[in-house]
Amino acid sequence: MARGVGRPPKHLLSRNSSQEASDGENSGGSNGENSGINLLQPPPSQLWSSPSTPLKQTISSSSHNSNYVAPQWLLDKTTAKFFSVPIPGVPPEVQDALEHTLLDGGDLKQKRQARKSHKLFAQIKHWKGQLQLQRHEVEQQKEMLARAISTRDTKLAAIRKQKMAEIDQKLQKMEDKLSQEKDEKMKQVEEETRKKIVEEFEVAFEKQEEDRKRKRKEEEEAKEEAAKEEKDEKDKKEASSEEGAEPDAKRAKKKLESEIIQEKIDAANAKMESLTEKKSEMIWLMKQVIKAEMKQKLMDPRKKESS
User: For bias kind Polar residues, which ranges apply (predicted)?
Assistant: First the structure.
């Protein structure tokens, strides 16, 4: 039991103080110099645990403390299990000196751990700063990339627009050139076709005129022969009237000869008509062939240019 009035037993105080000192050293060694915890600053009051038996019985039962007389306030609190004793605070100078002494004369393992923790905290702080810098740089690079992409898109759009305008101009020039060449070729082909048709018509007209002349000549010859035959018949009739009638066979034979001549004339006329029709058909077919050739010539340059 503690001696003196108003103080707890000495062995309890020594046990609590030694436990607190050991706890303070352990916490100081683990936290290091930069932990910021006051290792030697005692709490404002110490708590002391009373035994389960009443305080009065405990005091009276101790044989070596028979002369001790407990104060009245202590005897009144026989049912209390805890009470606090105020302890004055430690000055800051004393506390700093004690901390320095304990750190200098402490365990080497605790020193190493404190230094290691201090280095680790410094490294963590350094890497946190580096991380912030890297994040800031990454944000700046992202902004620069976004600006570069937008600039690239605008430039590509402008280049695409310019190229499309150039292509449109070239296409327009090519279309104008092709239309001009087409017109020139059409005019040339028309002139050539007109010349060919005129020449063909002239040739056909000359042939037709020759056929007509020949036909007229044949008709005139046939008429002359018919007139001559009629004259001969008249002369013969006159002679026969004088000499007598000619046999019926000779008359029939002469009649058949005139009919044969007339049939030949009709056949020649029909042949001329068929030749004229065939000629007109040939001229029409020739025109169609010339037109098809013109279209083919006009289509060939386009195919070459497109290929």
Answer: 56-66
